[in-house]
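Pilot study result, target chain (76 residues):
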Amino acid sequence: MNDHEIRIRFGKAVKDARTELGLSIAQLSREVGFDQRSSICQLERGINGVVMPKALRLVEYLGIDVAEILGGPDDG
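Predicted structure:
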């Protein structure tokens, strides 16, 4: 899996978890310490990645299973 695929999967996981929790992009941005809402928008669309400390805050806050993002049984 290349960097682009990881960004796409991570972004989808963030968006799915955020919407499941009923959070707006602005709410999530404030909760995890992003300076601008556009950062979350770009992250969810796979345009930009995120530095590890913020990625960890997102994963913890949203309850994302990193193993599901990085690979599953069908990822040979």
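One observation from the pilot: Residues 3-20 form the longest helix (18 residues). A full batch analysis is planned for the follow-on phase.
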